[in-house]
């Protein structure tokens, strides 16, 4: 019944001129379409995938949610989500299997897709399954993947939310089995769990996969990175702590070494990666985690914008503060406009675009770049808000540091989950300049720091505030006390 109603709505959308069409059905596209429809606008989403909630769909898009589910499944099945008491020898034992991990990814993907479809249905958004291509400033040609015929759609405004993908070097012989791009790692897991994966490129995605795979039994990843300045968006001290934790789990790092050649030994299935240092790394799969490119190749944007200048050399769309492209009626949001990989910004961007289409006042975002929380979803997680220590040093801004270890907290002792927090504060005003945290729920606790930094809170506030006991949030008080002890009296 729901499918029939959705099909009828899609046919109606095709037959009429719409107020707005969203190209791409990820969270950013869905949010924009729902908002426009709730405001009384005729809106449609063009979704390239005909399959809904399938494992194949979840693993083929390179989207963030399947990876996060993979990470959480590994944490749960490996027992790292258990307390110290539950993980005692007499406690419950869980078997880690490829099937169990994939089942969890599929179930979450199905839930995510079905709930999104239900929300769009409730809002009155039409969903058209097909691949969109501009044939004019206000016209799309859609290769329908259900009715298997091209259809034409027109609208006053468009929002592009097609995301990005890993750039495949044409000189690398990708074969899908021994040599793969990073965003196909989950597809690889449908066949086998690698024991000696070689991650080439210590990008955020590469580090996330390396640390998660290392949490599986008998998996020993190697990370190869030619640039010695790894993860420059993170504080140097926190990066060192993260890499030390990863080394303890069996991850080997080859920093400053460049991969010169990749060779597959057909008789054994081994992958040999020759490095610029003269060393050869041997593994069972080479995973390239390198630069990203916007998913714009098939959109024919020049037909809509009248010029190729609206896209940069990497395929990312150029936009202004209101998310408008060089064609004012076409907007772009999410990873198709950025190489940062901060996917959670896309929700805010999509609402800004939708409000601008409606002519509503668009509130100035209260967060500048320093106040956007940055998280690496490695195991353990690392998060920060505010400038790094190296940035403050370059700017010659005075600061003192305050530290807190989870072992100093009651909750840390109870759960036996190591972690760490670092505060940087102004020694004169005691204002909190930045917060850096590593360990359990780092991506959750960082939002306390985000509010404190945004509202120019002080270390004194963190000391006198009432914190739940026991909680990881108590680390703010411990770190603030440590920082204040180093300030001039």
TrEMBL record:
Signal peptide start and end residues: none
EC number: 1.6.1.1
One Pfam short name: Pyr_redox_dim
EC class of the enzyme, as a word: oxidoreductase
Cell compartments where the protein resides: Cytoplasm
InterPro entries in the cross-refs: Class-I_Pyr_Nuc-Dis_Oxidored, FAD/NAD-bd_sf, FAD/NAD-binding_dom, FAD/NAD-linked_Rdtase_dimer_sf, Pyr_nucl-diS_OxRdtase_dimer
GO annotation, biological process: 2-oxoglutarate metabolic process
GO molecular function: dihydrolipoyl dehydrogenase (NADH) activity; flavin adenine dinucleotide binding; NAD(P)+ transhydrogenase (Si-specific) activity
Co-factor requirement: FAD
One GO CC term, this protein: cytosol
FAD/NAD(P)-binding domain boundaries: 19-340
Gene3D superfamilies the UniProt entry points to: 3.30.390.30, FAD/NAD(P)-binding domain
Keywords on record: Cytoplasm, FAD, Flavoprotein, Mitochondrion, NAD, NADP, Oxidoreductase
Domain annotation Pyridine nucleotide-disulphide oxidoreductase dimerisation: ranges: 372-479
Stated role: Conversion of NADPH, generated by peripheral catabolic pathways, to NADH, which can enter the respiratory chain for energy generation.
Protein name (record): NAD(P)(+) transhydrogenase (Si-specific)
Organism, scientific name: Plasmodiophora brassicae (Clubroot disease agent)
């Amino acid at each position: 019944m729901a499918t029939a109603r959705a099909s009828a709505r899609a046919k109606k959308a095709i037959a009429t001129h719409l107020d707005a069409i969203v190209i791409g059905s990820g969270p950013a596209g869905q949010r924009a379409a729902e908002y426009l429809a709730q405001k009384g606008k005729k809106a449609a989403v063009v979704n390239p995938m005909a399959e809904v909630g399938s494992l194949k769909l979840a693993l083929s898009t390179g989207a963030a949610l399947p990876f996060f589910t993979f990470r959480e499944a590994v944490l749960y099945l490996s027992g790292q989500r258990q307390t110290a008491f539950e993980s005692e020898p007499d406690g419950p034992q869980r078997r880690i299997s490829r099937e169990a991990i994939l089942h969890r990814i599929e179930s979450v993907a199905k839930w995510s897709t079905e709930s999104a479809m239900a929300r769009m249905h409730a809002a009155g958004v039409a969903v058209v399954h097909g691949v969109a291509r501009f044939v004019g400033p206000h016209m799309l040609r859609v290769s329908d993947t259900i009715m298997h015929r091209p259809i034409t759609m027109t609208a006053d405004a468009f929002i592009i939310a097609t995301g990005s993908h890993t750039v495949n070097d044409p000189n690398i012989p990708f074969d899908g089995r021994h040599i793969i791009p990073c965003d196909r790692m989950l597809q690889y897991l449908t066949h086998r769990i690698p024991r000696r994966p070689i991650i080439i490129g210590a990008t955020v995605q590469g580090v996330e996969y390396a640390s998660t795979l290392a949490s599986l039994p008998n998996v020993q990843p190697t990370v190869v990175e030619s640039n010695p300045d790894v993860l420059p968006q993170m504080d140097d001290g926190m990066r060192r702590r993260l890499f030390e934790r990863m080394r303890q789990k069996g991850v080997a790092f080859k920093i400053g070494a460049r991969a010169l050649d990749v060779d597959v030994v057909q008789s054994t299935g081994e992958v040999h990666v020759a490095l610029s240092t003269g060393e050869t790394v041997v593994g069972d799969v080479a995973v390239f985690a390198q630069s990203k490119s916007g998913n714009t190749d098939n959109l024919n944007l020049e037909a809509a914008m009248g010029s190729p200048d609206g896209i940069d050399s990497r395929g990312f769309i150029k936009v202004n503060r209101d998310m408008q492209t060089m064609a004012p009626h076409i907007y772009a949001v999410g990873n198709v406009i950025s190489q940062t990989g901060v996917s959670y910004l896309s929700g805010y961007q999509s609402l800004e675009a939708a409000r601008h289409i409606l002519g509503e006042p668009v509130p100035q975002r209260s967060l500048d770049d320093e106040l956007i929380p940055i998280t690496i979803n490695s195991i353990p997680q690392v998060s920060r808000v505010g400038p790094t220590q190296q940035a403050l040093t370059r700017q010659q801004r005075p600061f003192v540091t305050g530290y807190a270890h989870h072992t100093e907290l009651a909750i840390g002792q109870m759960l036996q989950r190591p972690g760490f927090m670092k505060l940087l504060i102004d020694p004169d005003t005691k204002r909190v300049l930045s917060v850096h945290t590593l360990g359990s729920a780092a991506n959750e606790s960082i939002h306390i720091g985000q509010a404190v930094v945004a509202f120019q809170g002080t270390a004194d506030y963190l000391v006198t505030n009432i914190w739940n006991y026991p909680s990881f949030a108590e680390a703010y008080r411990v770190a603030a006390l440590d920082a204040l002890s180093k300030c001039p009296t």
